[in-house]
Task: inverse folding
């Protein structure tokens, strides 16, 4: 069974004295798996370790039963689109992909056919004969994706694959990844955009400071997110009394009174009930000057999920 | 899809990498290096062509006439026999020389008309005709109408003396062996005659009259006279003790017999030297090529060219942030190494062996075809083969050195400097250490030794000749072993290599 999984066992990687990842043990089944974590958390390090671009200082990695130390076997079943925004200056999109495919043993016509197919999937047919030096950032991102899928790998590793893509291409790419996963293949991608992960992942691995802090199905993580108390900043004249009224609601977990006694920081587990309660209080004659959400961003969610790690 | 063997993969990688090896912007200068001697040879042949045209502006002379020239012939005799020369120019050389070998070191200066003066002063402009900066006068005699030395024993003054015993009074004591000597910046010697008297002749006894070497006689001086010790009148203009201007007339004429150029130099109308040389000397040019090949191609061009090409194969990819594409290919890292080495080798061999052979071909192309054909029928083709082999093996050896260096080190300057130093001192090392040098083997493969005349410094001769040359087969095997060793080290390095552009 392990042969169909990507398995990391007690994997550590240090850059000198700087921690890359520390004692990571995880088994990734086929499907779309997202590595989620803030910048510098170790997502790219994990991907580089899986693809053999860097080697672990401790632990072992098996990619569907193959060690990353055997690129001649591993890269036949693996495609990796890195985040490095670089490409051979003199190559066109087509020649770049074709050259890579020749090393798989395809003859030139077969290599070109596969290259065209991959470019077509990523909407780069028109730019196939243009020098890559003239590509936009989004096009370079797409050509890297095309290069990763061109040999139809069993394991697709993608580092921030949706960065720099316009909405249409983004949607097409997500469809492509879903299709890939539906064939029983591995799609491992990294992202720091939770909403994006929410949309496409079958499973999520949360990583912070080089360690895995949570892993599992996307539903579990989403529930954790929903349980996360929302924070609001409330400005009103009679803050103490408004606070007293709000405390009667069972979904309110915490209220902090501002020093000027004109503002409140309110933490609620149920935004809708909080909204209704606030309506009632305003109807009772209390003037609410403003209401600002304080945590409607990814960082706040990380803070909750990863705590002090971020 | 067929499974490629490691060899087929290496070949495919080499084919893809050829572009980087041949046309990398970072290593474009290697073409200049490879073609530099060709450009120099072309320049040389262009100059010969220009000379030929210039020398053929008048009718060429018969070879026998050139051979009949003898030193000592007059200009007129040569012109009458050989006719007007296509190159003919003359010049004069003016030289200050000692007037006579038997001069006594005494100069007499007549003053006409005689002047009336009380103070007589000698100003020394150049103290000697050598680098000695001290003026020396044995005796300074002043005469009026009679034969009495008016200055004898009179009060004297002068610039600071060289020593206490060489003061100004010594020049007026009647004994030329007692000298006045002064090394002061501004040198002068003056006598007070006591009253204003007619002066018509001055006699100076210089250093040689006092028994010193004649080179120490006063180089240049003037003499002034005054009645009041304030206003002085020059009575003897700038002159020297023994110097005169000698003018020598030179003339150079060149003749051409269609192949040889004769440069004739005449001195004072007489043929002083004859230099007859072929305008193009095949043997000499071949010898020069041997020197260019060893000293330029092997020691500089191939060395630095391989540095540029092979270091760039991996370092260039790291700088361009494209190395990971190769590491993500389904090929062993060692196969990638071989493929890239192959690409570098093909490029360097094509550029440098090609460059050397083009240079050789240019050399052949400008010489007499019969002479060239005879050479090629003899040792010529063998020479070409070994020149090409040495260049190829140079690329093989230095290529492996710099490919390994490119994987192990970030800065190419350090390994290049260390290796260049090692290769340079190789001749001085014990025999077994000499074998750890690429250049040692390459020199053993060269078909023609570097031309070196006996006057060349011993150190230079030692540098260009291998102290203990290997046999050619031994040299090739040695280089292959050295290359295999270096590629093994490179293979170990590439297996451990990680892609980490951020630290570059």
Result:
């Amino acid at each position: 069974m392990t042969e169909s999984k990507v398995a990391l066992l007690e994997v550590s990687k240090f850059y000198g004295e700087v921690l890359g990842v520390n004692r990571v043990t995880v088994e990734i089944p086929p499907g779309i798996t997202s590595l989620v974590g803030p910048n510098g958390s170790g997502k790219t390090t994990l991907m580089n370790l899986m693809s053999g671009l860097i080697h672990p200082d401790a632990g072992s990695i098996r990619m569907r039963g193959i060690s990353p130390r055997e690129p001649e076997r591993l890269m036949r079943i693996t495609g990796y689109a890195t985040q490095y925004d670089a490409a051979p200056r003199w190559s066109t999109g087509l020649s770049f992909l074709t050259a890579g495919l020749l090393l798989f043993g395809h003859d030139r016509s077969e290599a070109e056919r596969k290259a065209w197919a991959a470019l077509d999937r990523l909407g780069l047919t028109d730019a196939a004969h243009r020098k890559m030096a003239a590509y936009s950032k989004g096009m370079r991102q797409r050509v890297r994706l095309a290069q990763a899928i061109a040999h139809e790998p069993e394991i697709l590793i993608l580092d921030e694959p949706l960065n720099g893509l316009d909405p249409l291409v983004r949607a097409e790419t997500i469809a492509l990844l879903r299709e890939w996963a539906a064939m029983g293949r591995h799609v491992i991608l990294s992202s720091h955009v939770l909403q994006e992960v929410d949309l496409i992942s079958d499973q999520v691995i949360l990583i912070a400071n080089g360690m895995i802090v949570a892993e599992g199905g996307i539903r579990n993580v989403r529930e954790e997110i929903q349980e996360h108390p929302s924070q609001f900043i409330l400005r009103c004249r009679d803050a103490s009394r408004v606070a007293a009224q709000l405390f009667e609601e069972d979904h309110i977990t915490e209220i902090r009174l501002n020093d000027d006694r004109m503002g409140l920081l309110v933490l609620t587990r149920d935004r809708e009930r909080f909204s209704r309660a606030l309506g009632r209080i305003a109807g009772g004659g209390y003037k609410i000057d403003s209401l600002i959400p304080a945590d409607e961003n990814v960082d706040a969610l990380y803070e909750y999920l990863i705590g002090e790690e971020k | 899809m067929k499974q490629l063997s490691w060899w087929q993969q290496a070949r495919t990688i080499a084919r893809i990498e050829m572009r980087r090896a041949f046309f990398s912007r970072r290593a474009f200068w290697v073409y200049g290096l490879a073609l530099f001697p060709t450009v120099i040879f072309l320049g040389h042949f262009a100059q010969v062509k220009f000379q030929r045209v210039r020398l053929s502006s008048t009718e060429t002379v018969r070879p026998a006439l050139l051979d009949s020239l003898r030193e000592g012939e007059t200009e007129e005799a040569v012109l009458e026999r050989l006719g007007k020369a296509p190159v003919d120019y003359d010049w004069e050389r003016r030289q200050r020389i000692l007037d006579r070998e038997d001069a006594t070191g005494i100069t007499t200066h007549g003053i006409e008309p005689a002047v009336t003066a009380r103070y007589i002063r000698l100003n020394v402009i150049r103290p000697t005709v050598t680098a000695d900066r001290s003026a020396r006068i044995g005796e300074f005699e002043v005469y009026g109408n009679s034969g009495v030395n008016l200055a004898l024993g009179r009060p004297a003054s002068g610039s600071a003396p060289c020593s206490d015993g060489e003061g100004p009074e010594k020049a007026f004591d009647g004994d030329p062996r007692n000298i006045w000597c002064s090394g002061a910046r501004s040198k002068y010697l003056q006598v007070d005659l006591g009253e204003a008297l007619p002066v018509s002749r001055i006699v100076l006894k210089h250093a040689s009259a006092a028994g010193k070497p004649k080179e120490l006689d006063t180089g240049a001086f003037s003499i002034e006279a005054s009645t009041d010790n304030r206003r002085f009148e020059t009575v003897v203009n700038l002159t020297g003790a023994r110097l005169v201007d000698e003018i020598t007339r030179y003339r150079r004429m060149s003749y051409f017999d269609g192949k040889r150029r004769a440069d004739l130099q005449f001195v004072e109308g007489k043929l002083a030297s004859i230099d007859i040389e072929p305008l193009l000397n095949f043997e000499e040019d071949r010898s020069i090529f041997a020197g260019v090949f060893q000293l330029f191609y092997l020691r500089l061009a191939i060395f630095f060219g391989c540095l540029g090409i092979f270091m760039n194969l991996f370092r260039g990819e790291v700088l361009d942030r494209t190395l990971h594409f190769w590491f993500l290919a389904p090929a062993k890292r060692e196969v990638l190494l071989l493929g890239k080495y192959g690409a570098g080798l093909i490029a360097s061999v094509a550029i440098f062996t090609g460059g050397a052979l083009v240079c050789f071909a240019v050399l052949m192309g400008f010489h007499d075809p019969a002479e060239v054909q005879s050479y090629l029928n003899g040792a010529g083709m063998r020479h070409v083969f070994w020149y090409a082999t040495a260049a190829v093996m140079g690329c093989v050896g230095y290529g492996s050195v710099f490919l390994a260096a490119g994987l192990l080190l970030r800065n190419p300057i350090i390994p290049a400097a260390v290796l260049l130093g090692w290769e340079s001192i190789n001749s001085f090392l014990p025999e077994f250490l000499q074998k750890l040098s690429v250049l040692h083997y390459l020199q053993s493969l060269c078909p023609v030794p570097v031309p070196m005349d006996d006057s060349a410094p011993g150190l230079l001769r030692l540098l260009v000749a291998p102290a203990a040359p290997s046999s050619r087969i031994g040299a090739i095997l040695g280089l292959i072993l050295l290359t295999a060793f270096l590629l093994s080290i490179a293979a170990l390095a590439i297996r451990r290599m990680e892609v980490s552009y951020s630290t570059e």
Q: What stands out?
A: Chain B has a mean pLDDT of 88.
